[in-house]
């Protein structure tokens, strides 16, 4: 009969690390401005990592007074401490680290060849730190690209950027993107961006690389040669035939002197000659893969499959941007149309089914609801299909909570002096929101503040979308 006391064993090994009894390794972690001496045990490090087995071999080892000496100026003391605690105890806690530090930790464990952590940290970044990609998308993409073991994170970053290109293309760091990475992105058929915007972004990148002004009238022959060389390998990746005629004339033809002349001829022929078909041997059109166009300052296209699944009461995994049977048409935006009940009803009454979404002030939290009926009239309306939802972090759809109506007779309330009103949760005529449903009688408790903990609250902005069956 055997018994397992893994937690006790883990704690004892962590104590060994902390007390440093019998240590034979001295590690200098951090650079000159922040260096720390850390003590460890070579036998434990060698068992847990191939890197240390090599580092402490006779060919590589540096020893002084019988102790191995290891200098790692590229890994901060704090991160090295986290790594060593994992090596000793098998435990690691990441929730107190910000996204950039988690990425640095991933780079460090890759260098130290700790395979279990490479997979674990990638999974953590993907699930819990998606916003880190927004901070320096060009730099993060380049960093991940340089590490072949970061496959999961690389695929995630590419998919996230293709799904929402403004993360990268609207960043002030976009022009610093290395050419091979830009080429990889422009090859993607699922890059969710109008082709004219892709072309304009490519030009912006090119002129920044060449430190030139975007003004063809001022270019000399040498300038045009430099631009042609810079653009050469990217030209076949632009789907010029998907650019509308007006945009082609003003935003593409204007650069005819730096584009291949046969391309310009073919494009002119396509736009001028009736029924002329595009030339063959071109990159596949991105149009069929473009994701939902959504006029919103609050939600993104990746929210739409989830909202559609809730409307249909289906598993969200069934939905993608190609099989959604609804369009979401913006009817009302408080910051644009006025934060009052009159504006809300003027824009939203007699429009049928709607979804409203509100963003909390000073937070990424989003709340909202689905009204399958309408907002006109006065009094309670019956439906069993309405719901409320709450994204504790609107940038991360995995934080969503959903609650379908519990009292269908009181699902929706309409009044000309109020905004959205569902059950006894409502927006008063101005930016005052109250959830009186303290006992979750009308809708389930999904974390929307109620009057027991928050008498009332304000939102930064809210929008209402008409749900239209395609």
UniProtKB/TrEMBL annotation:
It comes from the Eukaryota. SUPFAM superfamilies: POZ domain. InterPro entries: BTB-POZ/Galectin-3-binding (IPR051481), BTB/POZ_dom (IPR000210), SKP1/BTB/POZ_sf (IPR011333), TLDc_dom (IPR006571). Residues 297-468 form the TLDc domain. Residues 23-96 form the BTB domain. Coiled coil: none annotated. PROSITE patterns: BTB, TLDC. This is Btb/poz domain-containing protein 19-like.
């Amino acid at each position: 009969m055997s018994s397992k006391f893994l937690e006790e064993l883990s704690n004892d090994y962590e104590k060994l690390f902390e007390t440093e009894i019998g240590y034979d390794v001295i590690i200098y972690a951090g650079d000159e401005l922040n260096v720390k001496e850390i003590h460890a045990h070579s036998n434990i490090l060698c068992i847990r990592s191939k890197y240390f087995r090599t580092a402490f071999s006779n060919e590589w080892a540096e020893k002084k007074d019988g102790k191995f000496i290891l200098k790692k100026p590229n890994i901060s003391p704090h991160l090295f401490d986290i790594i060593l605690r994992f090596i000793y105890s098998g435990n690691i806690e990441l929730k107190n680290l910000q996204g950039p530090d988690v990425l640095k930790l991933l780079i460090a464990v890759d260098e130290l060849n700790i395979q279990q952590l490479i997979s674990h940290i990638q999974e953590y970044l993907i699930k819990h730190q998606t916003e880190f990609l927004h901070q320096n998308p060009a730099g993060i993409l380049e960093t991940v690209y340089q590490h072949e073991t970061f496959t999961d994170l690389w695929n995630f970053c590419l998919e996230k950027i293709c799904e929402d290109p403004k993360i990268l293309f609207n960043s002030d760091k976009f022009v610093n993107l290395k050419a091979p990475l830009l080429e990889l992105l422009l090859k993607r058929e699922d890059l969710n961006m109008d082709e004219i915007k892709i072309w304009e972004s490519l030009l912006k990148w090119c002129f920044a690389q060449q430190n030139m002004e975007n003004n063809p009238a001022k270019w000399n022959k040498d300038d045009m040669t430099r631009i042609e060389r810079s653009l050469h390998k990217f030209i076949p990746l632009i789907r010029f035939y998907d650019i509308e005629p007006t945009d082609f004339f003003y935003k593409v033809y204007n650069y005819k002197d730096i584009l291949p002349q046969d391309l310009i001829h073919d494009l002119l022929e396509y736009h001028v000659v009736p029924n002329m078909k595009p030339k063959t041997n071109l990159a596949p059109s991105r149009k069929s893969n473009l994701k939902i166009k959504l006029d919103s300052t609050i939600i993104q296209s990746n929210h739409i499959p989830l909202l559609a699944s809730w409307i249909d009461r289906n598993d969200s995994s069934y939905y993608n941007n190609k099989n959604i049977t609804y369009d979401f048409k913006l009817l009302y935006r408080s910051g644009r149309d006025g934060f009052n009940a009159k504006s809300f009803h003027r824009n939203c009454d007699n429009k049928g089914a709607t979804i409203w979404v509100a963003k909390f002030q000073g937070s990424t939290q989003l709340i909202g609801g689905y009204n399958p009926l309408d907002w006109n009239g006065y009094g309670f309306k019956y439906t069993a299909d309405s719901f409320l939802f709450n994204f504790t972090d609107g940038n991360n759809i995995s934080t969503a909570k959903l609650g379908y109506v519990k009292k269908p007779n009181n699902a929706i309330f309409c009044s000309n002096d109020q905004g959205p009103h569902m059950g006894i949760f409502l927006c008063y005529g101005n930016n005052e929101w109250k959830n009186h449903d303290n006992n979750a009688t009308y809708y389930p408790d999904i974390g929307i503040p109620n009057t027991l903990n928050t008498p009332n609250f304000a939102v930064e902005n809210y929008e209402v979308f008409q749900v239209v069956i395609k």
